[in-house]
Amino acid sequence: MTMLLASALFVGLFGSLAAVPFPFPVPVPYHAFCRTQWLFATPCSEISAKLVQQIEVFSPETGCKECQYMLVFATPEYITANHTSTNGLQAEKITFALTSTLLTASCRVSATSTSLGFTSLLDNGLNYCNLRNLLSASGLTSAPGFLEMTNEWACLGYGMATCTD
Question: pTM for the complete prediction?
Fold first, then answer.
């Protein structure tokens, strides 16, 4: 009976997570990942433009040897990029879904970075830093109304992250 109850709780928990609306696919649990939400008192079109601009600045095509971001797809509402470590051994998919909020000229950004390789779940904050470094370098951490919402459950390694911003 205890096993049946535990199984029902397990299925209910993970089944309910699948029903939670999220603007992009939820990372596979055996890959390191980070999901975070950012709020801005700035229109989404401005936030999107700054994120795309910073991804392009951090592209190896600009001659930046330490920068390994490649823009894959961008609209004012959705951005996809890839990040590769400087040694080329790790790769992550980065996505940003931008939604205008009910507040005038405000924007909510759902951001995720997911390791593409079969890696340890503990990435020492790499996926968080992929997102945070773009945000910081673009100046958006100083944007009006900026607020970040994440935790160790949504962003593995968040507590251990030592980003270079």
Answer: 0.77
**Burial zone of 77 (CB within 10 Å; 0-12 exposed, 13-18 middle, 19+ buried):** middle
Structural class in CATH, domain 30-160: alpha beta
For residue 8, what are the contacts with CB-CB under 8 A and spacing of at least 6? none
Instruction: Say what the pLDDT of residue 30 is.
Output: 63
Q: Report the alpha-carbon distance of residue 42 to residue 109 in Å, rounded.
A: 11
Among 67, 38, 55, residue whose Cα is nearest residue 141: 38
Residues 6+ positions from 148 with CB-CB distance below 8 Å: 36, 37, 38
> In this model, does residue 164 exceed pLDDT 60?
yes
